[in-house]
Amino acid sequence: xxxxxxxxxxxxxxxxxxxxxxxxxxxxxxxxxxxxxxxxxxxxxxxxxxxxxxxxxxxxxxxxxxxxxxxxxxxxxxxxxxxxxxxxxxxxxxxxxxxxxxxxxxxxxxxxxxxxxxxxxxxxxxxxxxxxxxxxxxxxxxxxxxxxxxxxxxxxxxxxxxxxxxxxxxxxxxxxxxxxxxxxxxxxxxxxxxxxxxxxxxxxxxxxxxxxxxxxxxxxxxxxxxxxxxxxxxxxxxxxxxxxxxxxxxxxxxxxxxxxxxxxxxxxxxxxxxxxxxxxxxxxxxxxxxxxxxxxxxxxxxxxxxxxxxxxxxxxxxxxxxxxxxxxxxxxxxxxxxxxxxxxxxxxxxxxxxxxxxxxxxxxxxxxxxxxxxxxxxxxxxxxxxxxxxxxxxxxxxxxxxxxxxxxxxxxxxxxxxxxxxxxxxxxxxxxxxxxxxxxxxxxxxxxxxxxxxxxxxxxxxxxxxxxxxxxxxxxxxxxxxxxxxxxxxxxxxxxxxxxxxxxxxxxxxxxxxxxxxxxxxxxxxxxxxxxxxxxxxxxxxxxxxxxxxxxxxxxxxx
Length: 559
Description:
Elements: H1 2-7, H2 19-30, H3 34-47, E1 52-58, E2 64-69, H4 109-114, E3 118-124, E4 131-137, E5 140-141, E6 147-149, E7 154-160, H5 167-172, H6 178-193, E8 199-204, E9 210-213, H7 220-228, H8 230-234, E10 236-244, E11 259-267, E12 277-282, E13 285-287, H9 290-303, E14 311-317, E15 323-324, E16 335-336, H10 339-357, H11 377-391, H12 394-402, H13 405-419, H14 423-443, H15 462-479, H16 481-490, H17 496-544, E17 551-553, E18 556-558
Parallel strand pairs: 1-8, 12-14
Antiparallel strand pairs: 1-2, 2-7, 3-4, 3-7, 4-5, 4-6, 8-9, 10-11, 11-14, 12-13, 15-16, 17-18
């Protein structure tokens, strides 16, 4: 039954679609999203000879998009048909496509945009006294037509409520930054290609800060540095290539010899990238070329299997008759003759540039410090030993040889403690050390130690700390003197002369110890006097302020 009903069904009648339906279907094919609409209007500005283009977006261009340039503008007579389909000033016959040099040629960009949004155009030519503003909808100029308006030479196009009559597509765009980033990507590509001739600015509506800004006089490498950062710019290698005959003029016939020119930048093998990037312009058009991109990735892998993803910008110039521009509705793909030969030549040139860059490497090295290394400890030690050996009297060595081991040990400890305070022996050593230090300062810069040094809290100098340490060593040696005396008394029975020498050494130790103890007592008395002076000043302040006098309990002060 189902097969019989389908066989007996009558075919539907073929009807001509309404123009509004046709235009809206075609508009949905050309204007896929805000970024594609921006690309079409941007190409119109560049074809008009603009030196600077400013773009303002709101919600990624879905809600509001403004493109303002300083190009040649639009004539007043052409405004009624400005948004009609297939109206253009860049093409007269189909054969003109063979030698077309402009970015636009179909004359349907503004028409498609006007069928899916509200368009307002303000333009002024160099010969006009003032500008004119016109509003368009569904390809037609809305009444009252062109109105005089204040303007500057150039054209300003405002697109509002994009896809207001195509709700399924409008709801597909999320409110996040995705659409804004796509528009930014379009502007970045054109900013690199048109470096030195045209400047670009991208802003969000209501914000003074711009997301992108380039100058018309900036070089291509400076633009890349400003858009992608200094790290990428530092890793780029210039590329220059001329293939075949090198003739890329429009006079080259369709069956003429191969000829092309290429220039751009390629990243070196040390570049760190998360994904491969190929910005390719063929005769001034940004296009996608998957075969060339895969071939370049293979070149980088062949040079270094662990190489990161490459970043390549390539401006490829071909004879206009060898390029087919009318291939894709959005013109993001083109066809050209001798495609495989061109790709092989470009990959060979990139491989040569990478091999040449591997012969020499540049590394960032920190500047050497101005501080010299510390003096060698062995040299300083030898100088001190030599100075100490010269001023030691010979009779001490002779006496020390005649003493027993215990007495020699005690005398050595006392001598080490007393030598730190002995002015006669330390004077020569200090003079020798000063002479050595002055010589080192004349030959070497000042050395700054990278460590903490403990100092005396009262004198705030390291000298005071050393003196206090010497005093502590002297007191320790004095406390050890009775033990040395008792051990020395035990050996008196064996030799009387030796016992007399030991008693002489003990007297010397006691005299030195008494001196050190007196110095320590003097320090304590000075500290107590200082504390009493501070207490007296405190009591005067307390009496003046009617506070109770402090009461000293040990080392604590309580009220």
